[in-house]
Specification:
294 residues, mainly alpha, Peroxidase, domain 1, Peroxidase, domain 2, three-stranded antiparallel beta sheet, two-stranded antiparallel sheet, 7 strands, 5% strand, globular, disordered N terminus
């Protein structure tokens, strides 16, 4: 059970939901996965990221508010291939808590995934509202294209409002999960511990010799020594660009710094485009780790 239920959930406007309870229910289905590496954590995190990473700071459109990925055409965007697994899995939690919006549920699932896989505490604020029409969908092409290099990666994340340091920190999430040929077309995990939040993405990126994978699939890299790890062209961009590389080196050396920067950048990502009154700061909620404390 949640031994630490003393942590009180915030009350927003007229709505009172026990977010720690919902957090725990998400944690309870994290291991309800008999493929991949036995955890829904990585795909929950990818869902939260793709829901939020559509933000455009100029037009102030996109972002996690709205949960527009429920609808076509956004659900069918190539970048979102496979995320139906995550949305369907989270439906059981929505059924138990009809009052939570999908947009809050998905962003909270990103926090649960990070924290329960051993990552840093991420402040989370509820209050997102779902859009109810498909016309609110984000246009295609707002999420990064894995086949591209530094300037594309920078353009995509600058459009959201991130700087180079934040970009590198965020991509460090590739310590988790893997690529699936039936989803993105790429294959394999980035690290040997794909269900544990660590700085090993940066260590592997720096320390291994990366060679072209010899196969019929899209261009990707494989580590020469074991042949078991992978990098996307867009991951290699972090080595090719000297302003990115500085942060790869710092995070490879200093896991604490990476955790701190990741938590701040991920919180910022989940807030993009969410209407706030400015009074929410004192309602920051730190949902407590559930499994790790059993
Ligand atoms: Zn990812 N990501 N990502 N990413 N990502 C994949 C998987 C995962 C890029 C990308 O093209 C891909 C961020 C940034 C970027 C996760 C989290 C975050 C996959 C494989 C691709 C192709 C999908 C598949 O086949 O299942 C690119 C180009 C990025 C920026 C340059 C950021 C930022 C993330 C979170 C903060 C995670 C956790 C996965 C693993 C999903 C899984 O199912 O295992």
């Amino acid at each position: 059970s949640a031994a630490n239920s003393s942590e009180v959930s915030p009350t927003i406007a007229n709505e009172t939901l026990d977010y720690q309870k919902i957090y725990n229910q998400i944690a309870d289905i994290l291991e309800d996965n008999d493929w991949d590496d036995g955890s829904n954590g990585p795909i929950f995190l990818r869902l939260a990221w793709h829901a939020a990473g559509t933000y455009d700071k100029e037009s102030k459109t996109g972002g996690s508010n709205g949960a527009t990925m429920r609808f076509a055409p956004e659900s069918d965007h190539g970048a979102n291939a496979g995320l139906k697994h995550a949305r369907d899995k989270l439906e059981s939690v929505k059924q138990k808590n009809p009052a939570i919006s999908y947009s809050d549920l998905w962003s909270l699932a990103g926090v649960v995934a990070n924290q329960e896989m051993g990552g840093p505490t991420i402040p989370w604020i509820p209050g997102r509202k779902d859009a109810d029409v498909a016309t609110a969908c984000s246009p295609d092409g707002r999420l990064p294209d894995a086949s591209q290099g530094p300037s594309h990666v920078r353009d995509i994340f600058y459009r959201m409002g991130f700087d180079d340091r934040e970009i590198v920190a965020l991509v460090g999430a590739h310590a988790l999960g893997r690529c699936h040929t039936d989803r993105s077309g790429y294959h394999g995990p980035w690290t040997f511990s794909p269900t544990t939040f660590t700085n090993s993405f940066f260590k592997e990126l720096l320390d291994r010799k990366w060679v072209d994978k010899k196969w019929k699939g899209p261009k990707q890299f494989v580590d020469k020594e074991s042949g078991d790890l992978m990098m996307l062209p867009a991951d290699m961009a972090l080595l090719q660009d000297k302003n990115f590389k500085v942060w790869v080196e710092k995070y490879a050396k200093d896991e604490e710094l990476f955790c701190k920067d990741f938590a701040a950048a991920f919180h910022k990502l989940e807030e993009l485009g969410v209407p706030r009154s400015g009074n929410e700061k004192n309602l920051y909620s730190k949902q407590q780790i559930y499994y790790n404390e059993l």
